[in-house]
Amino acid sequence: MTTKTSDDETLTEAISAEPAALPPRIVVAEASAPAAPARAGGTPKVGAENVNIFYGARLAVRDVTLEVPEKSILALIGPSGSGKSTFLRCFNRMNDLIPGARVTGHVRLDGEGLMDADVSVVELRRRVGMVFQRPNPFPMSIYDNVAYGPRRRGASDKAAMEALVERSLTRAALWDEVKDDLHKKSGLSLSGGQQQRLCIARVLATEPEVILMDEPASALDPVSTLRVEELMRELRESYTIIIVTHNMQQAARVSDRTAFFNMGEDRAGYLVELGETRTIFTNPKNQLTEDYVSGRFG
Amino acid sequence: MTASQSSGKLRAASGRSVAADKAATVVLWGLGGFVLLLLGLIILHFVIASVGVMSLSFIFGDPSESAVGGVGPLLFNSVYMLVLAMLIAVPLGLLAGIYMSEYAADNRVTATIRFAEEAISSVPSIVVGLFGLIAFVNLTHWGFTALAGVLALTLFNLPLMARLSEQALQAVPQEERSASLALGATKWQTIRHVVVPLAIPGIVTGIILTAGRVFGEAAVLLFTAGVGTPIHYNFFNLNVFDDSSPWSPFRHTATTLSVYIWKTNSEGTHAAQISQQIGDGASALLLATVLIFNLGSRFLGRILTRRLTAA
C-alpha cells in the first residue's frame, strides 16, 4: 500500500477556486471564501470543491463546494433525495464501492487531494471514520468489535490493545455499561443505543481525525438519541465531525454549521446554503432554506 | 380487551384472515411433522432391522463370502474416499465461491458459470460414472482405483461446493462489508475476518450436502473405483504407493459401503437372507456415519467461527 505519511503538500495545494470560471448555478454558499469558522482559529480540515457525483449517467449531486473547519460539527440537512448521504460518502470514498458511481471535482483532507489514484483508501478510511445509519456491530464480542480496526493494522500488543479498547469505550460513554461483559457478550446483544455507541467506539479505536455520521440516531429511541448527541458534543473537542440528519432539532442542537441540500428539478442534489447553524435556522438567506427549516416542505 | 366493544364488522373481517392464518399454521406444522416422521421411521426401521447384525465385529471385521461377516474395509473405503474428495472439493470450492461472490463482476460470463455449476452438479450420476470411466480409468491407464473414484466424485462435488459457498458468502449482509471497509480494513481482510467467518454456517451446510453425496454415491463409483471382492486390509502398510496398502490412492478396487450394499443385494453373492442382513446392518452404519459426520461438522464450524472472529 502506498501511504502518504506527511501532509507537506497541504499548503501549496490549498484552495484556489476561481469563481469566475464556474458555470451559473444556484449555489450561494460561502463556497471558496473561507466561512467564518464557528470556533476561533478553525482551519479547514476537509473540503470539497466543485464535487459532482454520478450514478451511471444520472447526476446525483451537483457541484458542491464547502469546507469544514477543524474540530467543528457540520450538519447536512435537506429532504430525501437531496444527496446528503451520497455527498458524505465522498469524504471516505465509500462511493467507490457502488458499481457505476463516479465522483468528479476535488475532495481534500488537510489540503491533500483524496481522490487521486495513488491515495490509499485504507489509510484514508483510518483517518476518516464512519458511523452508519443502522447500528452495525460485527457479530463478535464487544472487545473484538472495538479491536477490529487496530488489529487489521497489525496491532498485537495485548496490554496496549486492552488500554485502547477501554479508552475508546470510555470516550463513547459505554465503558461502564459493558466493562464486565467485554468478552462474554456479543456486540449484537446490546440495545440499539448501546450498539450505536459501540460502533462509535469502534471508529474511535482506529484513532481517526474526521468522523462521518450518516443519520446516526435515526434508528434510536429519544433517550439514546440524546446520549449520542451529548457524545457528539464531547467528541467535537478532538474530532472534525460531519453529520447527516433528517432531524432539524438535532442539527440545531449539535452542529456549529449547517449545510442545507435540496433536490433540483433534474433530481440532482445540490447545496443551497451553508452557514452558521444559528443563522441557517433563524435568518437564512435563501427562501428555500427558510421554507425547509420552518417545516413548509421536505 | 376493547374488541368486544368494536362493531361486528370489524370482528368478522379479521375473523376470516385469522382463520386463514390458523389454517396455514396447521398445514405447515403438519407437513413439517410429516417429513420428520418419515425420517424418524427410516431411522427406526434400520435401527430395529440391524439389531441382530450390529456388533463390533460387523463394523470393523472383514467381509465373508458365506456368512454375514463384517464391513470394516468398506467402511474404511467410504471414509477414506470422503476425506480425499473433501480435501479437493472444500478448499477449491471455497476459493471459487469467494471469487464468484466477492471479486467476479456480475455479467453474462459469471451467469454462465453459475448455470454450469448447477447443471453439472445435477447431471445423472450414472453419466458422471461413465465419463469417469473414460477419463480416469481408461485414458489414464490406472484401471479402477480409489483416486479415479475420488476424481469422478469431484466432478460434481466441486461445482456444488463452489455454488453453495458462493451462496453462503452472498448471504452475509453488505453492511458487514461496509463496516469493515469503513474501518480501514482491506478487501481481503474483510473477506478473511468478517465475510468468511459469518458465512461458516452456510459453508458447513455446503460441506455436509457435498459429503452426503460422497457417502451415498454408488453409480459413479461402480465405474471408477470398481466393485470387487473385498480383501483384508493391512493398516500397518503405510507405503502409499503400494497397491496392497489401504492408504494408497492408486490401489485397485476400492469398494465403498454404498457400493457393497448394492453388490450384495443385486449380484446374489450371498444367500438372500444374509444379503438382507448385510444390507440392513450396512445401511444403519451408513446412516450413523452420516449423522456423526454432520453433527461433527456443525460442532467444528461453530468452534471455527469463534476462533476466526476473535483473531
Order of helices and strands of chain B: HHHHHHHHHHH
Low-pLDDT segments of chain B: none
Percent of residues of chain A in helical segments? 25-40%
**How large is the radius of gyration of chain A?**
19 Å
| Greatest chain-chain contact | A-B, 29 and 19 residues
Report the structural category of chain A. alpha/beta
Quaternary structure: heterodimer
Major sheet characteristics of chain B? none
The secondary structure category of chain B is: mainly alpha
- Biggest sheet strand order of chain A reads 5-4-1-2-10-9-3-8-7-6
Give a description of the structure.
- The complex is a heterodimer of chains A (298) and B (311).
- Helices cover 30% and strands 23% of the residues of chain A.
- Chain A has 298 residues and is of the alpha/beta class.
- Chain A has a domain at 25-137 and 210-275 and 284-293: P-loop containing nucleotide triphosphate hydrolases (Rossmann fold).
- Chain B folds into 2 domains: 3-49; 58-310, MetI-like (MetI-like fold).
- In chain B, 72% of the residues lie in helices and 0% in strands.
- Chain B starts with 7 loop residues before the first helix and ends with a helix.
- The chains are: A alpha/beta (298), B mainly alpha (311).
- The interface between A and B is medium-sized, with 29 and 19 residues.
Which properties best describe this structure?
heterodimer; A: 298 residues; alpha/beta; Rossmann fold; 10-stranded mixed beta sheet; 10 helices; disordered N terminus; B: 311 residues; mainly alpha; MetI-like fold; 11 helices
Element layout with pairings:
The complex is a heterodimer of chains A (298) and B (311).
Chain A lengths: L43 E12 L2 E12 L3 E5 L6 H5 L12 E9 L2 E2 L7 H7 E4 L10 H11 L5 H14 L3 H4 L13 H13 L5 E5 L7 H14 L4 E5 L3 H7 L2 E7 L5 E8 H6 L4 H7 L5
Parallel strand pairs in A: 2-10, 3-8, 3-9, 6-7, 7-8
Antiparallel strand pairs in A: 1-2, 1-4, 4-5, 9-10
Helix pairs in contact in A: 3-4, 3-6, 4-6, 6-7
Chain B lengths: L7 H42 L6 H5 L11 H32 L4 H13 L4 H14 L7 H25 L3 H9 L4 H30 L2 H4 L34 H10 L5 H39 L1
Helix pairs in contact in B: 1-11, 3-6, 3-8, 4-6, 5-6, 6-8, 7-8, 8-11, 10-11
